[in-house]
Amino acid sequence: MVFQGLAEKLQDTFKKLRGKGKLSEKDVKAALKEVKLALLEADVNYKVVKNFIKKIEIRAVGHEVLASLTPGQQVIKIVNNELTELMGGSKSALSFADSPPTVIMLVGLQGSGKTTSTGKLAKSLKQDGKRPAMIAADIYRPAAIKQLQVLGDRLDLPVFTMGDQSSPVDIAKAGISFAQSNNNDVVIIDTAGRLHVDEEMMDELKSIRQEVKPDEILLVVDAMTGQDAVKVANKFDDLLGINGVILTKLDGDARGGAALSVKAVTGKPIKFVGMGEKLDALEVFHPDRMASRILGMGDVLSLIEKAEASIDAEKAMELEEKLKQNEFTLEDFLDQMEQVRNMGPLDQILGMIPGLSGAGQLKNLQVDEKQLDHITAIINSMTPEERRKPDKINGSRRKRIAGGSGTSIQDVNRLLKQFKQTKKMMKQFSGGAKKMKGRLPFFN
């Protein structure tokens, strides 16, 4: 879970505050001391933590909070607001050129994920109706050009390359001419990185910047490197000038120090975050939504957006009709499960649901993706008739299905029982909605 360690500590601290009918200045200061320690343990920059706590203390020990009927909730609201501001306040959108193509230049150290981020960003822009092209300007890392070409084939998007013998400046310049000729309205340049910031790398990047005049220079940094990521961001901004940051591997960062420090230290916003290895695992960074998730309040807007992008509306309508007719089958069960899985890792999805998003609720919940693979294998080992009419599955059929799916008869029995319970629950829900219709305004 993103920010798991920090989220658990903050939520435990605020749970104590909620439990008190009245708060004293001493109570608030004690809670803020715990918040401060939690942030420092999460590898947040010390100066950032100091200023953050000071701002909250000024607002939280005032008469309006301490004398209110729900002082604990008021303090949490203040922390939520300040946490949102700390990460940038609101989302920071890309700047698009008045006359295409918009040129986006990705920079960063070797291993930060620039090439993969180039592909992810291209896919995101394509889904938004843009016509992106990618330029392979990393001539130093073995297979960097080939990697980008493979991504281009998977995305059905053009990749401009001149091999590894031309200069990156010439490649970038020619790539933009290529994009103009082929009606591409966005160009993403994948540049080379080094193991550390050096003069040679920066001179090359400055030459590319001077030649192509990019509309956006985005620094790609690995969230899991913590404060090192913030230091790298500072250096790149000082020497090159950046417009924003793409923070990769945030899904694997339980601390979150980089995400909470970058904007405050560099003044440059996080524009995107990498939340997994898949090409669709690049998300626009919303400070308010992330603050809400850290404090255990969920993230309904992101959940809805993921559902809209992943779930087929037509199939959803078909499913609704099947539920009305009591025709929900194992094929439908499998289809719904796959659509939910397409939304992303299940622990991330559950973390967006208010009530389930608190670290305490999810701490002991182990989401085993392999179990879902077993369910898929079992259903795929059934005949079409068995999927549609599971009541026909007798002992010999169960043995055959278990053998075909590499599972046990007990696994098959468990799935059939789960399906029966799910079908019953969905039928009750559907029936309940019908009974309510006409009685409540929102069913009319």
Polypeptide structure, described:
This protein has 444 residues and is an alpha/beta fold. It is flat, with a radius of gyration of 26 Å. The two termini are 39 Å apart. Helix 18 (369-380) packs across helix 20. It has 3 domains: 4-86, Up-down Bundle (Four Helix Bundle (Hemerythrin (Met), subunit A)); 102-285, Rossmann fold (3-Layer(aba) Sandwich); 303-350 and 368-443, 434 Repressor (Amino-terminal Domain), CATH 1.10.260. The protein contains 21 helices and 8 strands.
Would you tell me the overall average pLDDT? Answer: 82
N- and C-termini, Cα separation: 39 Å
| Rg over C-alpha atoms, rounded to the nearest angstrom | 26 Å
Low-confidence stretches: 355-366, 432-444
> What is the annotated CATH architecture of the largest domain?
3-Layer(aba) Sandwich
SSE succession: HHHHHEHEHEHEHEHEHEEHHHHHHHHHH
Largest sheet: 8 strands, mixed
How many beta-strand segments? 8
Q: What strand order characterises the main sheet?
A: 3-2-4-1-5-6-7-8
CATH class wording of the largest domain? Alpha Beta
Number of domains: 3
Keywords: Coiled coil, Cytoplasm, GTP-binding, Hydrolase, Nucleotide-binding, Ribonucleoprotein, RNA-binding, Signal recognition particle
EC number: 3.6.5.4
InterPro entries: AAA+_ATPase, P-loop_NTPase, Signal_recog_part_SRP54_M_sf, Signal_recog_particl_SRP54_hlx, Signal_recog_particle_SRP54_M, SRP, SRP54, SRP54_GTPase_dom
GO molecular function: 7S RNA binding; GTP binding; GTPase activity
